[in-house]
Every structure is written in structure tokens, then in C-alpha cells.
């Protein structure tokens, strides 16, 4: 099976590393600077045990003669429109190609289904702990990754793609309710991001303050209010688990949005913007979500000033 991975950041780079290590046929599609770095230096992944892996990878240049069987989409959300245009122009997506987006949120599904048709688009949610350094090295913070994959509207052929993706270090589960799984990941990321960005600390540090648990309950209330207006039913048990995760005094967790904020890197605010827009469309108050968005946007403007 020919696999194209669009994006060589923390998600795309680590998934590509795991697949290539299992001798899967992998090619990368990356923006020009990243593509040049991959050609010159290879894919660099430092695993959780400190070992640096530097391996040659195939990089797509120009058009392709044959479409790929599977396209894994792992760019930054802001880069998705450019990636979609490239895929349309270079012949990478054919009649039998399936696209597996590993972006957070739900807005990308509309773009992909509108461009390529609902039949070609799968749902996916990935859980991994990794970041990317300025030199392009993917730093794995904890070993392994978990991938949930499933049909959005058409159920044919999902199992064969899941089988191809089952390699050491990548646990793959096929879920008929993949949209629910994607929503659960989304609200977890948003909830933990809002708590840590407003509280300016890890979950345990915030939980140890007198009003930290109150902040966690308020954020959970906002998330509940927004999701209640959407055409998705999230299990009550899962929402209760989210509430516990937001106020766990033993959790040293900090999401990537907060880590980027602290490190002075541009943060992917799009994942918060998407949920905030849904709240606005349904007239659901979301002051804490919007406060976190303000702080991230101010920080992003300092890193990349608007012209």
C-alpha cells in the first residue's frame, strides 16, 4: 500500500517514523523548507529513551504518476487549504484513495468532504506525546501512539487501512462511532488548554490552588454547554472523566497549546477558534474559552507580528 503523509511535524514525523520502521511504503509531502530539510538531512526523530534516529525518506516533488492508496493528513490547521490545493493539482488522490486526517477539531472534515467527496474521507483521532524542535527534530515525550480510525459516512474498506497502519508502537482501533471519538479528543484538548492557559501552569499546579478546582468546573460547564448544541451525544461518563482530568492534583499534564505558549512558539489557536465559533453560532456564552483565545492570540502576535 502506497502511503503519503502530508506534514512532517510532530504527528506526521512520528507516525511516518513508526510506519517506515515497519517497512511500510511511505512518502512525505511537506512545505518547501521542510521538504528540503528532509531531502538533505532525512527525518530526525529522538525517541523517549533519548536515541536519535535519522533516516532517509521519500519526498514527493511535483506531480505523481499514480495516486496513493492512503493520504494521511497531519499539517498545521492553517496549512490545510494549501495542502488540499496541492493534492488536487498533483494527482495524489485518485478514485480509490482514502484520506485520513489527523487534525484536531472538526472544521477540516467539511473542507475535505467538499473537495474530495464523502466516500474518500475517513475519520481519525490520534493520541501521542511529541513536539518538534526548530531544527526539525521530532522529540517523542512518551513512547507509542494510539490511533482511532473509522468511517464517516461509508464503511467500506476501513479494516484494510487499519491493518496496514498496525505497526509496533502504533496501536490502531477501528471505531464505528469515530465522530464521537474525535469530539472527545477535541473537548479534552480544549478543556485542558483553557485551564492551563488561564491558570498558567500544569494541571496539578492549578489544582493545588484554592480556586483551581472551581476553574476546572467552570471550564467543563462551558464545554458541556457548547457540545449540547451540536449533533453529537458525548457519553456522560466521558464528560465526568474530563472533569476529573481537569482537576487532578497528581497530573503533571500540560497540553501542547500551553507548552507552545510557554516556549514562545506560535500556537495552533484554530482548535479553540473552531469551538468558539460554534458557541457563537448557537448563542452559548464562552467567556473562559474566549479569554484563553485572547491570551494565545496576543502571544502569537508577538512571535509573528501582523503586517
From TrEMBL:
<dbReference type="InterPro" id="IPR013332">
    <property type="entry name" value="KPR_N"/>
</dbReference>
<comment type="pathway">
    <text>Cofactor biosynthesis; (R)-pantothenate biosynthesis; (R)-pantoate from 3-methyl-2-oxobutanoate: step 2/2.</text>
</comment>
<dbReference type="InterPro" id="IPR036291">
    <property type="entry name" value="NAD(P)-bd_dom_sf"/>
</dbReference>
<dbReference type="InterPro" id="IPR008927">
    <property type="entry name" value="6-PGluconate_DH-like_C_sf"/>
</dbReference>
<feature type="domain" description="Ketopantoate reductase N-terminal">
    <location>
        <begin position="3"/>
        <end position="151"/>
    </location>
</feature>
<dbReference type="GO" id="GO:0008677">
    <property type="term" value="F:2-dehydropantoate 2-reductase activity"/>
</dbReference>
<keyword id="KW-0560">Oxidoreductase</keyword>
<dbReference type="Pfam" id="PF08546">
    <property type="entry name" value="ApbA_C"/>
</dbReference>
<feature type="domain" description="Ketopantoate reductase C-terminal">
    <location>
        <begin position="177"/>
        <end position="291"/>
    </location>
</feature>
<dbReference type="GO" id="GO:0005737">
    <property type="term" value="C:cytoplasm"/>
</dbReference>
<dbReference type="InterPro" id="IPR003710">
    <property type="entry name" value="ApbA"/>
</dbReference>
<dbReference type="InterPro" id="IPR013328">
    <property type="entry name" value="6PGD_dom2"/>
</dbReference>
<keyword id="KW-0566">Pantothenate biosynthesis</keyword>
<keyword id="KW-0521">NADP</keyword>
<dbReference type="Pfam" id="PF02558">
    <property type="entry name" value="ApbA"/>
</dbReference>
<protein>
    <recommendedName>
        <fullName>2-dehydropantoate 2-reductase</fullName>
        <ecNumber>1.1.1.169</ecNumber>
    </recommendedName>
</protein>
<dbReference type="InterPro" id="IPR051402">
    <property type="entry name" value="KPR-Related"/>
</dbReference>
<dbReference type="InterPro" id="IPR013752">
    <property type="entry name" value="KPA_reductase"/>
</dbReference>
<dbReference type="GO" id="GO:0015940">
    <property type="term" value="P:pantothenate biosynthetic process"/>
</dbReference>
<comment type="function">
    <text>Catalyzes the NADPH-dependent reduction of ketopantoate into pantoic acid.</text>
</comment>
<comment type="similarity">
    <text>Belongs to the ketopantoate reductase family.</text>
</comment>
Amino acid at each position: 500500500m502506497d502511503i503519503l503523509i502530508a506534514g512532517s511535524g510532530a504527528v506526521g514525523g512520528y507516525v511516518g517514523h513508526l510506519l517506515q520502521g515497519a517497512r511500510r511504503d511511505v512518502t512525505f509531502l511537506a512545505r518547501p523548507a521542510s521538504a528540503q530539510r528532509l531531502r538533505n538531512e532525512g527525518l530526525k526523530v529522538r525517541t523517549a529513551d533519548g536515541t536519535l534516529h535519522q533516516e532517509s525518506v521519500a519526498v514527493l516533488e511535483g506531480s505523481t504518476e499514480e495516486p496513493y492508496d492512503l493520504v494521511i493528513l497531519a499539517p498545521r490547521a492553517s496549512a490545510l487549504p494549501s495542502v488540499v490545493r496541492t493534492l488536487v493539482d498533483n494527482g495524489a488522490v485518485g478514485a480509490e484513495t482514502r484520506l485520513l486526517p489527523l487534525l484536531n477539531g472538526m472544521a477540516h472534515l467539511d473542507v475535505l468532504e467538499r473537495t474530495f467527496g464523502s466516500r474518500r474521507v475517513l475519520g481519525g483521532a490520534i493520541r501521542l506525546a511529541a513536539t518538534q524542535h526548530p531544527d526539525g527534530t521530532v522529540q517523542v515525550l512518551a513512547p507509542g501512539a494510539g490511533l482511532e480510525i473509522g468511517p464517516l459516512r461509508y464503511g467500506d474498506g476501513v479494516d484494510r487501512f487499519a491493518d496496514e497502519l498496525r505497526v509496533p508502537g502504533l496501536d490502531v482501533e477501528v471505531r464505528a462511532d469515530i465522530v464521537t471519538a474525535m469530539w472527545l479528543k477535541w473537548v479534552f484538548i480544549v478543556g485542558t488548554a483553557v485551564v492551563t492557559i488561564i491558570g498558567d501552569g500544569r494541571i496539578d499546579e492549578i489544582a493545588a490552588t484554592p480556586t483551581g478546582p472551581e476553574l476546572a468546573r467552570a471550564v467543563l460547564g462551558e464545554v458541556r454547554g457548547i457540545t449540547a448544541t451540536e449533533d453529537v451525544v458525548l457519553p456522560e461518563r466521558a464528560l465526568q472523566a474530563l472533569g476529573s482530568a481537569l482537576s487532578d492534583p497528581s497530573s503533571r499534564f500540560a497540553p501542547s497549546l500551553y507548552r507552545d505558549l510557554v516556549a514562545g512558539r506560535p500556537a495552533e489557536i484554530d482548535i479553540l477558534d473552531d469551538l468558539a465559533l460554534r458557541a457563537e453560532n448557537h448563542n452559548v456564552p464562552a467567556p473562559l474559552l474566549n479569554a484563553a483565545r485572547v491570551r494565545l492570540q496576543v502571544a502569537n502576535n508577538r512571535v509573528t507580528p501582523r503586517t
